[in-house]
């Protein structure tokens, strides 16, 4: 049995004890970093999620992107899978999924059919490790979508620095690691493997904390 369930349970409990001020302040910094990412890579379209109350706030990111004419796709649960649909207005184009207590695009919104239209998907997570493996909600929606669609774009996690697990997450064949993770303190990206047997380095990610982004 893998350790995902225990890690998920532990970090979900941890999030309950985070102060409102910490969540608010960290969300503001994460928001600025993501907006910087969108501008730096000149994204014309991307996918993101509508955050729950204990996740970094994504509402302003979506609103700002729509104002700039950027196409925004949101995940919608469809049975055992997710699909992405484009919204034009965050007020009128979303509906609450009472079963999962999340907001998602209405069924009338345009379905994403050409996967190549979006070069970046911002992904929610409960915990992550130094290899940029993630623990999600446990339903496997994102991993299933990445695999079935053979998605080659960037997969960027959004979370707080407190969600970094010191315990390495047990991965399964269907699990998909992220390309980077944005937190309020650092931006994590994987390092290329080093084949030098004499190397004393065992870190598997690089950490960036660009002051021009967060100030």
Automatic annotation (TrEMBL):
Q: From the UniProt record, give one GO term of the biological process aspect.
A: tetrahydrofolate interconversion
A Pfam family annotated for this chain is 5-FTHF_cyc-lig
Answer yes or no on keyword Chaperone: no
Listed binding positions for ATP are 4-8, 134-142
Give the catalytic activity.
Answer: (6S)-5-formyl-5,6,7,8-tetrahydrofolate + ATP = (6R)-5,10-methenyltetrahydrofolate + ADP + phosphate
The organism's place on the tree of life at top rank: Bacteria
Molecular function terms from GO: 5-formyltetrahydrofolate cyclo-ligase activity; ATP binding; metal ion binding
Q: Does the keyword Magnesium apply?
A: yes
Q: Which UniProt keywords apply?
A: ATP-binding, Ligase, Magnesium, Metal-binding, Nucleotide-binding
| Residues annotated to bind substrate | 50, 55
EC numbers: 6.3.3.2
Cofactor(s) needed = Mg(2+)
Q: Which family does it belong to?
A: Belongs to the 5-formyltetrahydrofolate cyclo-ligase family.
Q: What is this protein called?
A: 5-formyltetrahydrofolate cyclo-ligase
State the organism of origin: Mesoplasma corruscae
């Amino acid at each position: 049995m893998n350790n995902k369930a225990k890690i998920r349970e532990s970090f979900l409990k941890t999030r309950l004890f985070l102060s409102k001020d910490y969540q608010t302040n960290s969300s503001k910094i994460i928001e600025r970093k993501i907006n910087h990412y969108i501008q730096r890579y000149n994204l014309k379209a991307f996918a993101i999620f509508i955050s729950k109350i204990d996740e970094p706030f994504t509402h302003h990111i979506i609103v700002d992107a729509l104002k700039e004419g950027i196409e925004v796709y949101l995940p919608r649960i469809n049975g055992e899978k997710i699909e992405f649909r484009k919204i034009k207005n965050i007020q009128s184009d979303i509906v609450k999924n009472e079963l999962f207590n999340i907001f998602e695009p209405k069924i009338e919104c345009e379905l994403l059919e050409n996967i190549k239209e979006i070069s970046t998907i911002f992904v929610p997570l409960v915990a992550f490790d130094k290899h940029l493996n993630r623990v999600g909600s446990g339903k496997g929606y994102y991993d299933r979508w990445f695999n079935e669609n053979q998605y080659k774009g960037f997969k960027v996690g959004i979370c707080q620095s407190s969600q970094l697990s010191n315990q390495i997450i047990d991965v399964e064949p269907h699990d998909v690691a992220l390309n980077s993770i944005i937190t309020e303190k650092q931006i994590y990206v994987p390092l290329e493997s080093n084949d030098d047997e004499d190397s004393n380095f065992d870190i598997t990610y690089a950490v960036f904390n660009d002051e021009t982004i967060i100030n």
